[in-house]
Amino acid sequence: MDERHFSTKTLACFLAKVILAIIAYSQVNHPLNWTDNAQFQEQTGEMHIPADVRILINRPITMPTHKPTLIALYTLPNGNSIECTVGKQMRPGDDWHYDIQHIGAQTRWLREIVKDKNLIVVYLQTDGKSWPAWRQAHPDNAVLIQAIVDTIRNLFAEYNPAIILTGHSGGGSFTFGFLNGVNTIPAYVKRIAFLDSNYGYESELRHAEKLANWLRNNNDTYLSVLAYDDSNVLYEGKPIVSPTGGTWYRSHLMQHDLASYFSFQENHDEQFERYRALNGRIQFLLKRNPDRLIWHTVQVERNGFIQSLLSGTQYEGKGYIYFGERVYQPFIRSE
């Protein structure tokens, strides 16, 4: 390479790849210490890659190799810990954050319903509890994110796993970091799901083009977008987002851009705006908000993770209602 073109950024990216390759090799060749939960027949293991990202892996104890394996990478919302995101039965004095997502219980419900797949959920938390801040602190974040994804895939290489990119709120920044780092979304990514988390969507960064090519070239890929009208929210008499900064605006912009590639069917009522394409493989489910309330985490709590993983499949809407009562209550851990 001509040294005139060997920039500091290029060197940083190269070094990041080398360092993370060493870490990844160490993780893959030194199996995690798994902790069993016999009640729900699941195991958890923890690692850090890179050093300022905490990763908790939750997998079924029994994983038949003949079943397709899905790994859902769930990137945490700003300010939340993994423990709060997993959730638990509330006791007097507990932090209210333990009761607002329940990804652990929703995962257990999903495993009971979708018996023909191995579902692994991986929780990703930065030390600062903010994926947008983490990306700003790491100019080479696209390289680091790809290394994180590759490392997790390699842990389960014998299962040839598919990847789901998902997360809530600021966790969506991880997904956009991944998209920014690739020219073509890999075929091993089977689902991208935004749970009120697509603040980082930008037309100028070719996000719609990349998503469209991925969806057109792979018939087993899905895009799910859940959001609500945050542009209409008033908190203490003031808006909580700018006119173009919230997920309501970004979701409509994303749908508008994708409409250049796909024909959408629209179905709106008093509660939701619904946009569907490719026989439901693309879905935007956008909650109206005439009362100007904050539904940011409620969307997740009310079966939002379930909906985001089942949209467009034979299981969608069966045994649960998005934004309805919690169907996963029996699967919430007591401790």
Protein architecture, described:
The chain is of the alpha/beta class. The longest helix has 22 residues, at 8-29. The strands form 2 sheets. The protein has an 11-stranded mixed β-sheet with strand order 1-2-3-5-4-6-7-8-13-12-11, with helices on both faces. It has a two-stranded antiparallel sheet with strand order 9-10. The model is unreliable at 1-6 (pLDDT under 50). Strand 12 and strand 13 form a beta hairpin. Helix content is 31%, strand content 22%. The protein is built from 10 helices and 13 strands.
Beta-strand content estimate:
15-25%
- For this structure, the quaternary state is single chain
| Mean pLDDT over the full residue set | 92
* CATH architectural designation: 3-Layer(aba) Sandwich
Fold-level CATH name: Rossmann fold
CATH class: Alpha Beta
The SSE string, one letter per element, is HEEEEHHEHHEHEHEEEHEEEHH
Question: What is the radius of gyration computed over CA atoms, rounded to a whole number of angstroms?
Answer: 20 Å
Strand order of the largest sheet: 1-2-3-5-4-6-7-8-13-12-11
Question: What is the makeup of the main sheet?
Answer: 11 strands, mixed
CATH superfamily name? Alpha/Beta hydrolase fold, catalytic domain
**Poorly predicted segments:** 1-6
CA distance, first residue to last residue: 56 Å
Count of alpha and pi helical runs: 10
Total E-strand runs: 13
The number of domains = 1
Structural class: alpha/beta
Report helical residue fraction: 25-40%
Overall geometry comes to globular
